[in-house]
Amino acid sequence: MLTKLEEFILLSVWRLGENAYGATIFRYICDTTGKNLSLGGVYFPLERLTHQGYLRSYMGITTPERKGLSRRYYKLTPKATAALEELRRINETMWAGFPDWAASVQSISK
Asked: What pTM was computed for the model?
């Protein structure tokens, strides 16, 4: 089973598509969750997910703006897609029937 951060990383890679590299993945997760993560805290799981076969990485072209350095981009593998589908199924099952807190709080406070 994947950690929540790993799940967020895989979903970010899917969402960002061709623009999925470390810094954009980091920014997307921080912006979406409102959490203040460290950039290094995203790179370690990216490498672990790549090593475990959930992600494939490749180097982009070098650009003058980056002084000849290239970015490492990430793509989901079929293993990642299957894992995300399973996580979605599990989450939907676990949350099924859970009351809407806003409606519950309003009815209790009246």
From this structure: 0.83
Here the tokens at position 56 are 């494939």
d(Cα 55, Cα 110) in Å, to the nearest integer? Answer: 50
Question: How remote is the C-alpha of 59 from its chain's centroid?
Answer: 20
72-76 and 55-59 beta bridge pairing: antiparallel
> pLDDT (tens digit, 9 = 90+) per residue, 26-71?
999 999 999 989 988 999 999 999 999 999 999 987 776 766 678 8
Contact 93, 23 (CB under 8 A): no
Q: What is the C-alpha to C-alpha distance for residues 61 and 70, in angstroms, rounded to an integer?
A: 6
Selected from 1.10.8.100, 1.10.10.10, 1.10.1530.10, 3.10.450.50, the CATH number assigned to the domain covering 4-109 reads 1.10.10.10
